[in-house]
Amino acid sequence: MPEFVRYNVTATLDPLRIPLALGLRLWQVFGYFGLYLLTVAGLLAMRRRPLAGKLKIVREIALWMQMAFLSVLIAYLVFMSVVGGAVLARYMLPVVPLVILLMVSTLWRRVRYWRLVVA
Could you tell me if 103 and 38 are in contact, meaning their C-beta atoms sit under 8 angstroms apart? Predict the structure, then answer.
């Protein structure tokens, strides 16, 4: 029992552990299990202008909703890095779909052959 309290409560507030845990959590959200390919494709697509025909279609995720996704993602990352206990990838599963939605939406809006890139 004392070992459990030390590892899951006391050790989480170590100043060195927090940035290390944040780095690992970022990898788990943006790169784990091949997500780095989608992340890199999304980041490269952001350098392009949106396609002209895609601007008027309603299926696009609104900017305010993208910012809401991003704020939830950042809050969850910071919280789990500070008081997250064990740094396991399964704890980041609630926010991974937000990253996938944002990256696929970005590719859809900016790349003509987005399905090929996503596949």
Answer: yes
Cα–Cα distance list, 18 to 9, 71, 83, 98, 99 (Å): 13, 19, 9, 23, 22
pLDDT at residue 40 in the model: 96
Residues 114/50, Cβ–Cβ less than 8 Å: no
Q: How far apart are the C-alpha atoms of 107 and 41, rounded to whole Å?
A: 8
Place of tokens 């859809």: 108
Q: At what angle do helices 17-30 and 35-45 cross, to 10 degrees?
A: 80
pLDDT given for residue 62 in this prediction: 82
**Tens digits of residue pLDDT in 38-96:** 999 999 999 999 887 655 555 678 889 989 999 999 999 999 988 877 788 899 999 99
33: left (phi over 0), alpha (psi -120 to 50) or beta: left
